[in-house]
Design brief:
The complex is a heterodimer.
Chain A lengths: L16 H9 L5 E5 L5 E4 L3 E4 L6 E7 L2 E5 L16 E5 L2 E4 L5 H8 L2 H9 L7 H5 L27 H15 L8 H9 L15 H4 L31 E7 L22 E4 L15 E3 L24 E2 L3 E3 L5 H8 L16
Parallel strand pairs in A: 8-11
Antiparallel strand pairs in A: 1-2, 3-4, 4-7, 5-6, 7-12, 8-9, 9-10
Chain B lengths: L4 H19 L2 H6 L3 E6 L3 H11 L5 E8 L2 H14 L14 E3 L3 H7 L6 E4 L6 H11 L2 E4 L7 H16 L4 E3 L7 H11 L6 E9 L17 H7 L5 H4 L1 H18 L5 E7 L13 E7 L5 E7 L7 E8 L2 E6 L9 E4 L8 E4 L7 H15 L6 H20 L3 E2 H6 L44
Parallel strand pairs in B: 1-2, 1-4, 2-3, 4-5, 5-6, 7-10
Antiparallel strand pairs in B: 7-11, 8-9, 8-15, 9-10, 11-12, 12-13, 13-14
Helix pairs in contact in B: 3-4, 5-6, 6-7, 7-13, 8-11, 11-13
The chains are: A alpha+beta, B alpha/beta.
Chain lengths: 355, 453
């Protein structure tokens, strides 16, 4: 991807939650982002549907105002784990977030090369951005059906490694000309809470959880189509349950109290990393706003091949992701040093065995 | 799965199995001999089989490796080093015990003693060649499925296996679903009549592109033979293609539940999306098998992305139905329903417990049989499953009804002279001037699956 695809924006500090809320919701069509594809033409910070060229797929994106919130859970919260702290006030900058988890329809354009194949076989027209998008690595074919018979289309994509989710974002960015990435853990929790300080974004009453979430009690032992339960206060669906969602961060047993602005635990090793929100096979306490779930090598247990694929967690049947698009696009060097930084590098095993 | 239940169970059940195994085999425990393993065929599946071997409790170690690609072997060794990092003594393969070439299998087997095990995980065309040598040397064998892909090799394999049984060799075949405890309980329940007489079975493996089943033209710098081995799912002589390699598990588990093998097959299939691909596979296969009592087994295989995905097997009886496997191979989550709909209110039985990994169980069982000198030979059954699978494939590729006996006695030898191949050899299947290979033409080429001109 070319660095010049994203225009860096002047930083508009989001110090005041009230100010930002006013900004985002009271003043329509406030010009604060630019669309590189339109040659720098300003675009408003409001909801939109991201189309994916050569397909009918759209990703609904909602504006999430920047602001401050208390990240983590209080010591008195029932079922609290010690890794949900220390609680601290964290500031995050504004971003758009996908209204739902990324579905198989959205994911398979990339994974199954639907855009490329529709150009080749149906004569769909290429865009100027397609050469860069086609240059992004796509996953090797899975050894088996990664939906495990639970349905595709409107159901959330699952069983991808964090590497695969990151690469999807890289491809989506190249394909659309907007900078998409996974949320940070802080952005995720901020968006999930949507101003709430309670156990769940709708309050503390677990008996209401089934109105908002698919989990072990009501999921019929499989994931469900996205967006069928009530959203949170900011319009986001399935933040609790259905599938847990990848964030960018390395998992550490506690939060870094020094990092309070746009915090991110840049990952330096493959495991454990973080998923949030809980999934269809989890019990209610795993769905709490503050609950953290650490990824594990065991999520590849049933991959029968060695080396195991860098693309699939064959046992992570309730792990998916959603995407964010930061309002202020970081520079190429900021992305390299922070937002897109990850190690070790993930490479497919050599396919060329000629020797 | 985000909660650790399954993993915790796997760990504790492995310990339980290990404890049971270490109590039972007195003869072995007294001698405390180390079982030595040689790996012949260091691809992904072979490496993973070696991993399972090294996870068996008790004294066991890998001592030799063989492949035709140096890089394959090096990658495999590197991966096993990571697997064995806590038991480095289990990976005891000196540089001089790593062999490259079409005769490498002999050198690896020669390092074993009677009682040891050779893993045969090359493409199945080589299976009988390697098995023959293992039998001569009197070593036990674990061989990956399928075990044959054509009639001549199937007949040869059955002959060879008589010798193996005379020598009391223990031989496992990688149809690991047969070792699944959940399916085992379902089998008992079906045999006890819980779904009545089985009238129909259904099996599906419908997903996107799988393994090396679709291949473009051979690049420069590699011979036809070596390219084909690299892309072995693309070539019928090597692997039996997408039918033999991908569908055999679901076919086999259905036949297990029926407790019989079908007598004939008719089938259809075609190539819609192959484009510039040069492999011999179809995109889609539909096979109807008939058992001698007239019951049917319907099998659907497809490797087209974006279509309905299903990877499961079902049995329908006069009283109800059973889900044999739910999605992929494990966990199977077998269930029995009243009637023919999978409604929760009709559920009569489900295994309901965490399932141990059958890829590990097949190794635990083989090594236990070796240590306790129990009869253990899965080859005849493996050949039968391979012939049944091949007969469905041939029915699709020729457009004809193919019986079990016709398949077994079919004289189309797909890999003549395979035992004499060298790194410099031509392939048994050479491309034409355009770099293309013969593909099946149902109704036009009917006596065998493809013809070379």
């Amino acid at each position: 991807m070319h660095a010049s695809q994203f225009n860096q924006q002047p930083r508009t500090g989001a110090r005041s939650l009230i100010l930002v809320l006013t900004w985002a919701f009271s003043i329509p069509v406030t010009v604060i982002a630019q669309d590189s594809r339109a040659g720098g033409k300003p675009v408003p910070f409001k909801k939109y549907a991201q189309k994916i060229a050569q397909t009918s797929v759209k990703i609904d994106m909602l504006p999430i105002p920047g602001g401050h919130f208390v990240m983590g859970s209080p010591a008195a919260e029932p079922k609290r784990k010690t890794d949900e702290g220390p609680q601290r006030v964290v500031e995050v900058e504004p971003f758009w977030m996908s209204k739902t988890e990324i579905t198989w329809s959205m994911y398979d354009v990339w994974g199954e090369k639907k855009d490329i194949r529709r150009r080749e076989l149906l004569g769909a027209k290429a865009t100027k951005l397609d050469p860069a998008a086609d240059a992004v690595t796509r996953p090797t074919p899975p050894y088996t059906d990664m939906s495990f018979g639970m349905g595709k289309g409107k159901y959330p994509a699952i069983c991808m490694t964090q590497h695969a989710a990151r690469k999807y974002c890289e491809w989506l960015s190249a394909k659309t000309g907007h900078y998409y990435r996974l949320p940070t853990e802080a952005e995720w929790e901020y968006a999930c809470r949507a101003g709430s300080k309670t156990v769940y974004h709708f309050g503390d009453d677990v008996s209401k959880l089934a109105d908002y979430a698919w989990f072990s009690d009501n999921s019929s032992e499989q994931y469900q189509p996205v967006g069928r339960k009530k959203p949170n206060a900011w319009g986001l669906h399935d933040m609790h349950g259905n599938v847990s969602e990848w964030v960018l961060d390395q998992y550490h047993k506690s939060y870094d109290p020094e990092q309070t602005k746009n915090p991110l635990a840049v990952p330096g090793k493959l495991f454990p990393r973080v998923v949030r929100g809980g999934g269809w096979d989890d019990s209610p306490d795993w769905l709490r706003s503050a609950r953290r779930i650490a990824s594990s090598e065991d999520w590849k247990e049933q991959d029968p091949q060695l080396p195991q694929s860098i693309w699939y967690h064959t046992d992570a049947l309730s792990v998916g992701f959603r995407v964010v698009r930061p309002l202020q696009v970081p520079s190429a060097s900021e992305r390299r040093q922070k937002w897109d930084k990850t190690a070790p590098e993930q490479k497919d095993p050599p396919t060329d065995t000629i020797e | 799965m985000t909660q650790p239940n399954r993993r915790t169970f796997l760990k504790s059940s492995a310990v339980a199995a290990a404890t049971a195994a270490s109590i039972a085999p007195k003869a072995w425990a007294a001698g405390n001999q180390t079982t030595q393993i040689a790996l012949v065929g260091c691809g992904g599946r072979g490496t993973s089989a070696a991993k399972n071997a090294l996870r068996v409790e008790g004294n066991i170690k890998l001592v030799a490796m063989a492949d035709v690609f140096k890089k394959n072997l090096a990658n495999s060794f590197g991966n096993l080093q990571r697997i064995a990092k806590n038991d480095p003594e289990r990976l005891d393969v000196a540089e001089e015990c790593k062999f490259i070439g079409f005769d490498a299998y002999k050198k690896a087997v020669d390092l074993l003693s009677p009682g040891d095990v050779v893993i045969l995980t090359t493409p199945p065309a080589f299976r009988w060649v390697h098995y023959k040598y293992a039998i001569e040397k009197g070593v036990n064998v674990f061989m990956e499925k399928p075990v044959t892909v054509d009639g001549p090799a199937s007949r040869r394999m059955l002959e060879l296996n008589k010798l193996a049984k005379e020598k009391n060799l223990k031989v496992g075949v990688g149809l690991m679903c047969r070792h699944c405890e959940a399916r085992g309980e379902l089998f008992d329940r079906i045999q006890n009549g819980e779904i009545g007489d089985i009238n129909m079975l259904r099996a599906y493996r419908m997903a996107g592109p799988t393994a090396s089943a679709a291949s473009g033209k051979k690049p420069e710098g590699i011979s036809d033979l070596m390219y084909q081995i690299k892309r072995f799912h693309s070539f019928l002589w090597l692997s039996g293609g997408a039918v033999s390699d991908f569908l055999i598990h679901n076919i086999d588990e259905c036949c297990w539940m029926k407790n019989d093998w079908p007598v004939e097959a008719k089938a259809s299939g075609g190539r819609h999306y192959r484009g510039e691909m040069i492999d011999q596979n179809f995109d889609t296969y539909s096979i109807e098998y008939t058992f001698k009592d007239g019951a049917k087994l319907l099998v659907n295989g497809r490797t087209i992305p974006g279509c309905h995905n299903e990877f499961a097997s079902y049995a329908h009886g006069s009283k109800g139905m059973a889900v044999i496997s739910t999605a992929a191979h494990t966990p199977a989550k077998p269930r029995i329903y009243k009637g023919h709909k999978e409604d929760a209110e009709n559920l009569l039985w489900s295994f309901g417990r965490k399932e141990r990994n059958p890829y590990q169980l097949e190794w635990d069982h083989l090594i236990e049989a070796i240590r306790n000198d129990k009869p253990y030979n899965e080859v005849d059954r493996g050949v039968q499953a391979s012939v049944v699978t091949s007969m469905g494939r041939m029915a699709a590729h020729t457009g004809q009804v193919v019986t079990y006996d016709q398949m077994l006695n079919c004289d189309h030898a797909m890999s003549p002279g395979i035992e004499n191949l060298t790194l410099e050899s031509d392939s048994p299947l050479m491309p034409n001037d355009e770099g293309k290979y013969p593909i099946p033409f149902p109704g036009l080429v009917t006596e065998q699956e493809y013809e070379e001109f």
